[in-house]
Specification:
Layout: H1 16-19, H2 23-26, H3 28-47, H4 59-66, H5 68-71, H6 74-82, H7 94-107, H8 124-161, E1 166-171, E2 174-180, H9 181-200, E3 204-206, H10 216-221, H11 227-239, E4 246-248, H12 259-287, E5 291-293, H13 312-334, H14 345-350, H15 353-371, E6 374-376, H16 378-386, H17 393-402, H18 408-416, H19 423-431, H20 437-446, H21 455-459
Parallel strand pairs: 3-4
Antiparallel strand pairs: 1-2, 5-6
Length: 467
């Protein structure tokens, strides 16, 4: 029985329940599974191609090959890699072990005469490129994007609900002007929506062109086959089961250069940075009492202070997003660099993709949990605005400038900076202005209403295609 308390990382230990879904994509077992899919689909495509010299397959044989990913156990592959098999010494090569395992399965059936066509002309990076492409595609479409959409839905709901609720905006941490809670939530939903669209429309590049990217062995053994067209068709076939599509990179070395991976991981990092920004803002609103957290029965905020409800969900999310981004940044910096036509330093790095996505997923789940616990403190927000009537100085000096009043900015600066201002003083100041009655009336009416501009309308703007 697995003991999560002995796991080295919190991804597989403390947070295992939150990250268990990713084990369907990033474990060694699932990497083997997707490698077998790549090998099987390559063989089937080759068998269907004139010029390959492979006899016609029966329907039963085709079904057998398609079922290989489920039939071959990862332990079988790992055994051949580390301990060897019947008449096979340990390969110490993970992809070659997959090839030998499939050949073993072929040898048990009427396909034994075709076993040498498994992995023929391909290099391990052809198989890995397709396997990781499928893994990343499924991770995005089945886990990451759905979770981000859930966060987006919550943000949109908060923006709609609080579109008209005034809030004191702070710039440089100081009282600035008025806004609304809804508009501030809408800013984050719009930012997140834009990055979601990018992820949904992203295409993952893959290669299938042999040892140095030139189809050398392919054209030597099968000169009649149009290999670039063949590779495009193979990827098109794999795309039938994928929402995030793969795309053939025709110009590569032995490995796909991974610029595309860098684009993806940079996009993930930007998305996570938006959510870090959000978590920090929410933390501040909670600290200022503008947002309050609903108490959860039995939950403890502090081991010594019973009254506390700490913003742990947003703090936890911020920490996990930071770890994820550190990894994504490293991936983007490291992977596009490979010595000459190939070095192996990318292999162990790619095996850590799941860790970065796991920390992201943990964060998304904590953000969602936190969002369901917060509520706006409308009374506190109203009090903050009442306590800072100096924010109307911007509007007053702007109207006076419109009216041709001399040096209104400087006048308001002298009146407000370093002084305690209340509405009575502000109204008295307006009354003493040497300007027309209509302007004074306009200014007095202005300070009777929340100074929030178009914030309510902005909060209700339709977010572009959520996907």
């Amino acid at each position: 029985m697995r003991n999560d308390l002995n796991a080295i990382t919190p991804v597989d230990g403390r947070y295992r329940e939150l990250t268990a879904g990713l084990s369907g994509y990033f474990t060694e077992a699932r990497l083997i599974y997707h490698r077998i899919i790549a090998e099987a689909e390559y063989f089937l495509a080759l068998a269907a191609t004139p010029g390959a010299g492979i006899r016609r397959l029966t329907k039963r044989e085709k079904e057998f090959i398609k079922n290989l990913p489920c039939k071959i156990m990862p332990e079988q592959v790992k055994r051949i890699e580390t301990r060897g098999g019947k008449n096979i010494p340990p390969t110490n090569h993970d992809v070659k072990a997959v090839e030998y395992c499939i050949k073993e399965e072929f040898s048990k059936t009427g396909l034994r005469d075709l076993k040498e066509f498994i992995h023929i002309a391909a290099t391990s990076e052809d198989i890995n490129s397709l396997a990781y492409g499928m893994i990343l595609s499924k991770t995005l479409s089945e886990t990451i994007i759905p979770m981000l959409k859930e966060i987006l839905i919550e943000l949109e709901a908060l923006a709609e609900k609080h579109s008209n609720l005034p809030l004191l905006a702070r710039t440089h941490g100081q009282p600035a002007v008025g806004t609304t809670f809804g508009k501030e939530f809408k800013v984050f939903s719009a930012r997140l929506s834009r990055h979601l669209r990018f992820l949904e429309n992203f295409k993952i590049t893959a290669k299938f062109s042999g040892a140095a990217g030139n189809y050398n062995a392919h054209t030597a053994a099968f000169p009649r086959i149009k290999w670039i067209d063949f590779s495009e068709n193979l990827i098109r076939k794999l795309n039938n089961t994928l929402k995030i599509k793969l795309s053939l990179n025709k110009l590569t070395t032995q490995i796909e250069p991974h610029d595309n991976y860098a684009e993806l991981f940079d996009a993930m990092r930007r998305t996570n940075t938006i959510l870090i920004d959000f978590c920090q803002d929410v933390w501040r609103y909670i600290s200022d009492g503008l947002l309050v957290q609903k108490p959860v029965k039995g939950e403890i905020g502090s081991s010594t202070m019973p009254h506390k409800i700490n913003p742990i969900n947003f703090e936890n999310a911020e920490g996990n997003l930071g770890i994820a981004n550190a990894l994504f940044e490293f991936f983007s910096r490291k992977l596009p660099v490979s010595r000459l036509q190939r070095d192996l330093s990318d292999s162990t790095v790619k095996r850590n993709f799941g860790t970065a996505f796991a920390h992201s997923l943990i964060a998304y789940k904590f953000i969602l949990k936190g969002l369901k616990k917060i509520q706006v403190n409308a009374w506190k927000a109203e009090e903050e605005l009442k306590n800072h009537p100096e924010i109307y100085a911007e509007a007053i000096q702007t109207i006076l400038r419109r009216e041709g009043f001399e040096n209104p900015y400087e006048l308001l600066k002298d009146f407000t900076r370093g002084s305690e201002i209340n509405f009575e003083k502000l109204e008295s100041f307006i009354e003493q202005l040497e300007t027309g009655k209509n302007t004074k009336k306009e200014l007095k009416n202005l300070i009777k209403k929340p100074y929030i501009g178009l914030a309510p309308a902005l909060a209700k703007l339709k977010t572009e295609n959520r996907g």
